[in-house]
Write a structure and sequence with these properties.
The complex is a heterodimer. By secondary structure, chain A is an all-alpha fold. Chain A is built from 15 helices and no strands. Chain B has nine helices and ten strands. Classes of the chains: A mainly alpha, B alpha/beta.
Chain lengths: 276, 252
């Protein structure tokens, strides 16, 4: 399998020092500066001495914990439903596939606050599904942690779908066909051939999805409201802190940033470590 | 063919945006000038009307508004945004501008009080704060003025009512009610009136403990200092006070 070959090839040999063309280097450096400078602005303005006392605040710890749990749950849901959707879009052969692909990206374009209202119209107390849940089982979804996870999944799943679909389209379908001619069932082909081939794409999609969920604000505050410990995630805490205290808001943003970078870096080490 | 008007509109909008971003231009010889007023979001309807009235009484003067949350406006002003007048929805954010030396001698021009907003016809029969104990209700977060007022009123009532959500601003709080997700919402009387028939406002005595005062001040670095003083006086005078009264504000 070519996928294995690339992995076994010693990486150093191919990465001999090459001169980077100026046509790439200049825009790359300018772009990096554009991406990194706002962060530097936050770092410069941050009141570092306040950091330990902020971290000790129970509300902040609760918000941080809630953010990590809900973003992870949203990523799990996105994987569960998003990978099959991506497979349908990449490999399925049915009319209206182009339209479906466009519809899947709607949450990317929709302003998140509108997404939140849309979720309320479906899952709210008077919503299409929500009204039935409320009358029949006395279940209300808005203002609960479940609502936070649903809002995050709604806005972040498209990132996973788009990235997994791209990986599927890039993967060589002949390996799947070969496995099928050798007698493997469709499910076996998917789990033993397709999934290992597109694993990097799935992982990249999951990381994007998790990061987007972690930063989610508009749909969450609209659909799930804001209640400490139950629906108040870090971005909500940051926004409210911003109403009264700019520096507190910066400290909170930096905590969120540091935690997410630490989680992603450690995951990456573990993942690449397992492969090597 | 159809693209042309769109392009023209876009160009006009862009030109306008650039113009606004540059702030109020200084007065020219024939008295034409643009006055830039930073006003709290809750003043949107009444100040737009007051601005029209002011323009009709001052030849060649255009009043531009920047409506946003008072804390955002205070931050923009202290960071040097070119504005002539600041009208805040609370004393705290006006104090920030005064402490930074950006505003001087603020005066209270309106008062606003909380009401319990309920669906039209008051289906749950709410008559006071105590009735909220058995209902779900929304309130603003304590970090924003309407939330601080709500907490003060709840404390004054001696109950320990807890809303189901602490919203980021008063419009979002009211929206939870109009969408039917909560049975009641603690909002300003002006917001309940602006919702125009969709909601009823139930007055409650404890709101008197948390009356919100709206201060206005001409800014020290105002590009049009004289006009800024005129506008501030105009807002405090009878005509503007009548407009504010119709919107649900009380006179100071």
């Amino acid at each position: 399998m070519p996928a294995k070959q690339t992995r076994q090839r010693p990486p150093r040999r191919t990465r001999r020092r090459r001169r980077i063309p100026a046509a790439l280097l200049v825009p790359a450096v300018a772009g990096l500066a554009f991406l990194i400078l706002p962060l530097a602005g936050l770092l410069a303005r941050a009141p570092w001495t306040e950091l330990p006392s902020r971290l000790a605040e129970p509300d902040i710890l609760a918000a941080l914990r809630l953010s990590l749990i809900t973003a992870t749950a949203a990523t799990a849901l996105s994987l569960l439903f998003g990978v099959p959707i991506a497979w349908l879009l990449a490999r399925g052969d049915f009319p209206g596939r182009g339209l479906l692909r466009a519809l899947v990206t709607v949450p990317l374009v929709l302003p998140p606050v509108v997404g939140g209202v849309a979720l309320l119209l479906v899952f709210g107390r008077n919503g299409i599904i929500g009204a039935w849940l409320y009358e029949r089982f006395d279940i209300t979804i808005p203002f609960t942690t479940t609502a936070v996870i649903l809002a995050m999944t709604f806005v972040s799943m498209p990132f996973l779908i788009v990235s997994v679909e791209g990986a599927l389209r890039g993967a060589d379908a002949r390996f799947e066909e070969a496995a099928a001619t050798l007698g493997a069932g469709r499910w076996t082909v998917f789990t033993h051939v397709t999934l290992p081939m597109i694993a990097p794409g799935v992982l990249a999609g999951a990381v994007l999805c998790w990061a987007r969920a972690l930063g989610e604000f508009g749909a969450t505050i609209t659909f799930a409201g804001n209640f400490p410990g139950r629906t108040q995630t870090m971005p909500l805490a940051v926004y409210l802190a911003l109403q009264s205290d700019l520096e507190a808001a910066i400290v909170l943003s930096l905590i969120l940033l540091a935690v997410s970078v630490a989680v992603l870096a450690s995951l990456r080490d573990r993942w690449t470590g397992a492969v090597a | 063919m159809r693209a042309k008007p769109v392009l023209a509109t876009a160009a006009a909008a862009l030109a306008l945006a650039t113009f606004t971003a540059c702030g109020g231009d200084t007065a020219t010889d024939d008295g034409a000038a643009t006055l830039t007023v930073f006003a709290a979001a809750s003043l949107t309807e009444s100040f737009t009307e007051i601005g029209d009235r002011f323009e009709s009484e001052h030849d060649g003067v255009t009043v531009e508004f920047n409506f946003a949350g008072s804390s955002d406006l205070a931050a923009q002003i202290t960071e040097g945004a070119p504005a002539d007048v600041f009208a805040s929805a609370d004393q705290k954010n006006m104090d920030k501008a005064v402490e930074a030396g950006a505003a001087d001698d603020p005066q209270t021009f309106a008062l606003n009080q909380l009401v319990i907003a309920v669906p039209e016809g008051d289906p749950d029969g709410v008559t006071g704060l105590a009735d909220l104990a058995s209902l779900t209700f929304a309130a603003c977060a304590p970090e924003v003025p309407c939330g601080a007022a709500a907490q003060t009123a709840i404390d004054a009532s001696g109950t320990d009512l807890t809303p189901v959500t602490y919203e980021a601003d008063v419009k979002a709080t009211l929206q939870k009610l109009t969408l039917g997700e909560v049975d009641a919402a603690l909002v300003y009387r002006t917001d309940a009136i602006a919702a125009d028939g969709d909601v009823d406002a139930v007055e409650f005595p404890e709101s008197a403990e948390a009356v919100n005062a709206y201060p206005i001040a001409a800014l020290t670095d105002a590009p049009n200092a004289d006009l800024a003083a005129d506008f501030t006086a105009f807002v405090l005078a009878d005509d503007a006070q009548a407009i504010l009264g119709a919107a649900g504000f009380q006179q100071p």
